[in-house]
Amino acid sequence: MKPSYAKLVEGVALPPMALVRQHFDTEDAGDPVSAVEAAMAQAAVVGDTIRPGMSVALTVGSRGLASLPELVKAIVDELLARGAKPFIVPSMGSHGGATAEGQVSVLAHLGVTEESAGCTIRSSMETVEIGRLDNGMSVQIDKLAFEADGIVLFNRIKPHSAFRSDNESGLVKMLSIGLGKQSGADNCHAWGFHYVGRFIVEMARMKLEKCRVLFGIGTIENAYDRLARVVVLPRQTLIEDERVYLGEAMRNMPRLPLGPPEAPLASGPLDVLIVDHVGKEFSGSGMDPNITGRPSSTAISGGPDVSRIAVLDVTDKSEGNANGVARADVITERLFQRFDREKVYTNSLTSGVLIAASIPLAMPDDRSAIQAAVKTCGSHTPEAIGVMRIPNTLHLEYLYASEALLPALRDRAGIEILQEPRPMRFGDDGRLLDEWPH
User: Fold this and answer.
1) For domain 32-252, which CATH number applies: 3.60.15.10, 3.90.180.10, 3.20.20.30, 3.40.50.11440?
2) Is the pTM of the predicted complex or chain greater than 0.70?
3) What is the pLDDT of residues 24-65, one digit of tens each?
4) Which InterPro entries is this protein grouped with (predicted)?
C-alpha cells in the first residue's frame, strides 16, 4: 500500500519523451593494452628507473576508469617484462569504508583482482608520516608503498567534482590523498575544499622528494567514457605536466545539450533532470556536478541551472555508497533502502562535506519520484516543461528529452533525434521500462 503522500502526485501528467543521441568530437586510443605498451616504450623514464628484481607498488583507486582491468593488467605485464616485482596498493583515501578489506572489495567490484591483474594486492590502512607542511599538517603515505623499492602512480586525469585548481583529480591527488589512506585524506580535507587544491600539490611535492616515486601513468578519457590517451609523466615534472593534461580532459568532458555548444560546461535552465543511477564509478561525487550544476562545495561552480533532480537508484558496484545523492531533490524508496550510512558517512566525515550525506525526499517508485519532481519544479507552463533523462552523469551519448526541448535540440549541431516523443512507460511496480541503446 502506497503512503498517503504519494497520492498527492498521482494526477501529475508527465511529458512525452524522445530518445536523443549526442555526437561528440573525440580522440580514441583504441586497444588499451597497445596504448599502454606504446606509452611506456616511448618514455625514457621507464627504462631508466625500472630495475630487475625491484618491488614496485602500483596505485589503483576507487574510480571506474575506462578499461580499468585491462589497463592495470597491461601495466603489470610491462613491469614484469622489465624484471620488476609489482604489487597493487589500493589507493583511495577513506573509500571502501576506510578498511583494508573494504578497499580490496572496491577493486573487485571494478574488475581488478589478483587474478585479473596478474600480481598480488597488498592492502593496509597503515601509513608512515614523512613530514609536515608549513602549517603543521601531517603528510602520510601508505606504509607498504613507502617500503617498496619504487612506486608507479596510475590514475585517470580529469576535472574534480568538488574543487577547481591547477591540479584536480589525477596523479597528484592519487599521491597526496589516495596513498595517504584515511589519515592522509582526513588531513588534506581538514581545512575544506577551498584549500584542497593547494594542499594536494604541497603534499605531492614532499612525497616526490622523500619517497621512491618512479613515474606516473595517466589516462585521459573522451566524451564517450572511452580511453583517449595514455601518458607517462616523469616524477621531476609530474605536477606541471598534469596541469596540461587536465585542460585536455576538461575539453573532452561530455555535457548536457544546454547553453553554448563550444563551452566545456552546459548552462541555462532546465525544469527537471532524471538520473537513473548515481555511482562511484561515474564520479567521486556519485553524480558529477560538472554535469548537473549541483555541487556539494562552494569551491566549484558552473553548469546548468536545474530546478529539480530526481535520482532513481545507486549502482551495484557502489555497494550502497550513494555519496552525493544529497544534491538531488527526489529519490526512490529503492535507493533509500540501499543507502549505506557506513560508507556514505565515512566519506562525508573524511571530506568534511556533511551535506553530501543527506537524504532527499524518497518516493515509493520511479513514477512517483518523477511526478514529485515535475509537480514541484516551479514551471508556469506545464505543457512546455523541459525534462531530460540520463543514465548517469558519465554516459551522455544518449538521453531522453521532453517534447518542449526538441525544437532547440533539432537546431543544435551534433544532435540526432532517434525517436519521436512518446509517453514514459512504467511497469506495475512503478519502474521505468524505457531502456537505453547498447
Assistant:
1) 3.40.50.11440
2) yes
3) 988 899 999 999 999 999 999 999 999 999 999 999 987 778
4) LarA-like_N
